[in-house]
Amino acid sequence: MEEDPKNSVGLERVKKWLYAKGLEERSSGCVLCGSCYGHGPANPMEDSPGPKEKCPPYEFYRFQRHTPKSRWLMAQRVFHGLDPITPELKEVTYACTNCLMCQELCGVRGDGYGPWDITVAMREEIYKKEGVIEAHRPIYDNLHRYDNPWEQPKEQRGAWAEGLGLHKSGEIGATTLLFAGCSADQPAGRSSARALAGIMQVTGEDFVILGQEEKCCGLYAFDLGFRGEYERLKAANLEAIARAGIKTVVVACGSCQRIWREYSKTSGLDFRALHGVEYINQLIDSERLKFSKRVSKKITYHDSCHLGRGAGIYNEPRRILRTIPGVELVEMERNRRWAWCCGGGGGVPEADPELAQWSAVDRLNEAARTGAELVLTSSALCQRSFAKLKHPAVPVQDLFEFVRQAL
Question: 267-286: per-residue pLDDT in tens?
């Protein structure tokens, strides 16, 4: 019996889009239009083509092989046994930042993924046949040993919450969970988790955290092709919320939210996952949260790829900022679904640090052109990416921390 592609790992999982046998598969393959990187005819279903610059690795390298279209074709040739896995193929495959821009443009895949998922499947294929690439070995080893990508011992998980007086799962009967994410115990994400927890406390929300029980959401495992590790982490996190009777998961990181959306597609559990900006927006609607302090600042908001294109959350952060007295919100030229990637995703900072830095610099230079005094974002990966710059064009702050200061 033929294996169900949904249960497969590697290119077999996406064979429908790789010109396999049969009319249906052939008609679902790449049509080589070039829309996915902004240099071909626009998707006829697209009402707003957006800016021409769409694919970070292509704009950085300016070679066709670094486009989603070419990665699709490379995967096709490997799938059919026409080409081996070469160092050059790996270089191109791991230069994708998983910014999800190509899914906004591709008129072929209509399942909510897009050409980037072909790249992920190619990474699964490489891992299955040759193992982890050296640039990503620390991430893999840390996920396997510590359940997080940052080599933090399990017993230190949840250190971000020290001194806040938060309850851990099982201590009270709350059905709301704050999922802080791995970065909460790192400099780039600590302020975000603590600020969101503080906002939830101010509004009187009964909630718990997992503390040492919390594991990585599986973002890195998913995007880097470690599908077995992803499924293991997913099962552990779902088991934890099922055991605690959690009905609402409030997520601190935009990238974690994208993965929790993946969970909800197949978990079978009765819960909803909200990113913190969705949660705060609901608090404003119900008048449980009101801003009393005036903050006279000109601000621009950076849509993270995973929270924006990955989870479709664009309006909530802007509405929150417009509710704060004194805030002047200005938009970058590339915003919402067309927002430029910070370069922090897809394992690119580890595999291709020059590309990652170039993308982050380009984004903050764009922010500077708005005249904004401050850039706000809602993703720990973006915070980490911008924090690595020695001379950022504009200061960057987490949105939750900014909101907490306005209360």
Answer: 889 999 999 999 999 999 99
